[in-house]
Amino acid sequence: MIRLGVNVDHIATLRQLRGGSTPYPDLLFYVKESVRAGADQITIHLREDRRHIQLNDLKLLAKNCPVNLNLEMAASSEMLKLAKKYKPTWCCFVPEKRQELTTEGGLDVLRNEKKIKLYAEKLQSFGIEISLFIEPNLEQIRSSYRVGADAIELHTGKWVLLKGRRKQLEWRRLVEAAKLGHKLGMRVHAGHGLDLMHTQKIKFLPFLREVNIGHFLICDSLKDGLFASVQRMKKTLTTRKS
Ligand code: PXP
């Protein structure tokens, strides 16, 4: 069974468009709706620029999230302290650039092995599991293994946007990456840019255990609500026929 992580960042984006001055949208309500519709996990990204999720959201969900909480975060000393304090089930290290529209590209584990290993070990000693958001690059996967990651989350953003032969080549990179990650004993997760059509395909990635999906679900929910969107996605993920 492939687990569905629902990323609720963009519910907070809507609230923060008015500087967080409105009591709506109620993040916890939508978290509960997602879970009721079949989400196995809730994912949030507390960015340094606080453009969507705020510290209060982390506090709230650390206490009240009814399923596993996956905290995406930069490998920074500030985030290390917050993760130790609020103890999400998972921490997923992601790269962060101030000007980016969304998380662009994967984490360069290879160039930051020492720091990531240190941070990962510290959080694991608190019982938090560690995943690393990386490109489907075999060197990054070997490096993720060396730092002791519990899981790799493969960046699907490039594959989603590509067309034709280049898309097929990127799919092959994802397959090879998933196989190596599994062989090295890490769990294989995937995420970024996934919509219903790409989820239909990504579920056939070998050894895939989890996907994290945000932007599409929140956009799709404008039609007939988040419950229906999450339910459709869950069904797409769990029905074996494509
Ligand atoms: N996984 C990671 C590590 C991410 O940074 C994001 C974006 O916040 C997602 C998954 C979800 O991507 P999207 O919002 O495009 O579905």
Quote the beta fraction: 15-25%
The number of helices is 11
Bulk shape? globular
Main sheet overview? 8 strands, parallel, barrel
Mean pLDDT: 96
Run of helices and strands: EHHEHEHEHEHEHHEHEHH
Stretches where pLDDT is under 50 for at least 5 consecutive residues are none
Helical content class: 40-55%
First-residue to last-residue Cα separation: 15 Å
Strand order of the largest sheet: 1-2-3-4-5-6-7-8
Unique bound compounds? pyridoxine-5'-phosphate
Number of strands: 8
Radius of gyration: 17 Å
Derived from helix and strand composition plus strand pairing, the structural class reads: alpha/beta
Outline:
47% of the residues lie in helices and 17% in strands. By secondary structure, it is of the alpha/beta class. The longest helix has 20 residues, at 164-183.
Description:
The protein has 242 residues and is an alpha/beta fold. Helix content is 47%, strand content 17%. It has helices at 9-16, 27-36, 55-64, 77-86, 113-124, 138-146, 157-161, 164-183, 196-202, 215-224, 226-238; strands at 3-7, 41-45, 68-73, 90-93, 129-134, 151-155, 187-191, 208-213. It has an 8-stranded parallel β-barrel with strand order 1-2-3-4-5-6-7-8, surrounded by 7 helices. 42% of the residues are buried. The chain binds pyridoxine-5'-phosphate. Pyridoxine-5'-phosphate is lined by residues 7, 9, 45, 72, 92, 94, 102-103, 133, 153, 191-194, 212-216.
Strand and helix map with partners:
Layout: E1 3-7, H1 9-16, H2 27-36, E2 41-45, H3 55-64, E3 68-73, H4 77-86, E4 90-93, H5 113-124, E5 129-134, H6 138-146, E6 151-155, H7 157-161, H8 164-183, E7 187-191, H9 196-202, E8 208-213, H10 215-224, H11 226-238
Parallel strand pairs: 1-2, 1-8, 2-3, 3-4, 4-5, 5-6, 6-7, 7-8
The protein binds pyridoxine-5'-phosphate (PXP).
Pyridoxine-5'-phosphate (PXP) binds at residues 7, 9, 45, 72, 92, 94, 102-103, 133, 153, 191-194, 212-216.
